[in-house]
Amino acid sequence: MISLRSLSRVGVPQSLKRAFQQILLGYHSYAPSFSAAGEDMILRHLLGSDKQNGFYVDVGAFHPVRSSNTYFFYLYGWRGINIEPRPGSKKLFDKVRPKDINLEVGISRERGETTYYFIGEDSSMNSFSRDFLEQMGLLDEVKQRLSVPVLPLSDVLDQYLPKGQRIDFMNVDVEGHDLKVLESNDWDRFRPRIVVVEDGEIDATKSNIVDLMKLNGYETCVQNVIILGKLNEYFFVDTTV
Length: 241
Known about the structure:
Layout: H1 14-24, H2 39-47, E1 55-59, H3 71-75, E2 79-83, H4 89-96, E3 101-103, E4 106-107, E5 112-118, H5 130-135, E6 144-151, H6 153-160, E7 169-172, H7 178-183, E8 194-199, H8 208-215, E9 218-222, E10 232-238
Parallel strand pairs: 1-2, 1-7, 2-3, 4-6, 7-8
Antiparallel strand pairs: 5-6, 8-10, 9-10
């Protein structure tokens, strides 16, 4: 059985890539999940298992392979935009995902700089949100507080989304900063078919993220994908198309 731990931190050998591609193209009876909780397989089901040449946007991409909701689709021929604020992250994404647009920047409601709480290179819990880290009991693990440039999501998509390109799905996973990311988008102009968002509020009736997405014409199609017992992931579908 192939383990994600066996994948090289700086890339995947071509022979292994070919093996995965054979799996994805149907030469084997199973397909690998690279996500933390099988989100990529949920997306595959929602979008259609035979869909090729799709486009994704991954906000808070973390790593090009590990715990990635988009790498499965990259191997299948999809392309997209990966956005990760961790200093130095772009070099790794450019090496492993050279056909994607890889950006080293944070996303927030306004242009400027924001404090980035850095736990470690291999930590998926680096965050812009001090409150989130305190809630998760990780504030004492913070090693550095860095000033990182941030842009509204609408500005990034306006500059980097290829002209006329429809976004099939957008993944937002920024450790407690997710609502601000969603608020920074122009939902009239940039409407992914499906949006996956991590939320610290497990109860959908109390979620500000759920309320915001409903206000913008999205409905929850999958919920209660619980991570670490404290986080929920919601899958929203555009109801206006």
